[in-house]
Amino acid sequence: MIIPFEDDDRKNAWIFMKPLKMDLWLTTGFFFVFTRFVVWVAEHRVNEEFHGPPGKQVGMIFWFSFSTLVFAHKEKLISNLSRFVVIVWVFVVLVHTSSYTASLTSMLTVQKLKPSVTDIRDLIQSKEYVGYQQGSFVEGLLKNKAFDTSKLKNYSTLEQYDEALSKGSKNGGVAAIFEELSYIKLFLSNPKYCAKYTMVGPIYNTAGLGFVTLSLSLSLPVN
User: What distance in Å separates the CA atoms of residue 195 and residue 8, rounded to the nearest whole number?
Assistant: First the structure.
């Protein structure tokens, strides 16, 4: 069967959020706030840089927390507790940043193309529309595979294949097209289609296509 590739995520404006799962983002945010609170509690009574009006203290601790993310904090820490907390936090930030950068770089540089469907049973269970060549024996094969007759669509040209697969099953097209192997190779050999579609799934052997070679022998009279 012929199926389209999934869309590449590199054009997504929110791709920078994808390297980390939501629970990891929330955990990072929690420890960010927790570290800020512990440093403020430990330094407030002994460090003059953390003294002043409430607004100044809040601004100072926010600035200190954000500066540790890029290892640019300049405030001097006096309490051993705050020093220990910041050492652990900076180490976690270093590992976290390295992992995030590597994952994001991979997403931006490696083409994330993969088949949208890999198993014929998925198409049957999800009741997706599928296509086949008009007048082909493939229609009977699909019915024998338990496809719903109302979910079968026939097409007669490669351009119609492209249009149906581009639309998708939910937009008036199909999720996959079943075709004879020789025609699939012809379709995928076209530069316009080979980058958009691929062939997956098992190959079923049937008596659907054959070639016959005829030889003709002539007898001429000899004088």
Answer: 12
- Closest by CA to 2, choosing from 104, 97, 123, is 123
Residue 153's DSSP bridge partners are 131
Tokens representing residue 126 in the block:
């999800």
pLDDT at 132: 92
Q: Which residues of the chain have pLDDT under 70?
A: 6-13, 71-73, 108-116, 118, 207-223
Q: Which residue has the tokens 């799934």?
A: 201
C-alpha–C-alpha distance, residues 28 and 24, integer Å: 6
- Model pLDDT for residues 113-126, shown as the tens digit of each residue: 555 676 788 888 88
Phi–psi pair at 53, nearest 5 degrees: -60, 155
pTM for this predicted structure: 0.49
> What stretch of H or E contains 93?
helix 80-109
Which residues are 131's β-sheet partners? 153, 177
Residues 175 and 123 sit within 8 Å (Cβ to Cβ):
yes
- Helices marked H in the chain — which ranges? 22-44, 54-69, 80-109, 120-125, 138-144, 158-167, 181-188, 191-194
Count the residues in the chain: 223
Give me the pLDDT at residue 174, please. Answer: 92
Predicted confidence at residue 6, as pLDDT, reads 66
Amino acid at 191: P
Task: Give the Cα separation of 80 and 42 in Å (integer).
Answer: 8
Cα(135)–Cα(130) distance, integer angstroms: 15
Structure-token pair, residue 218 = 């002539």
CB 126 within 8 A of CB 168: no
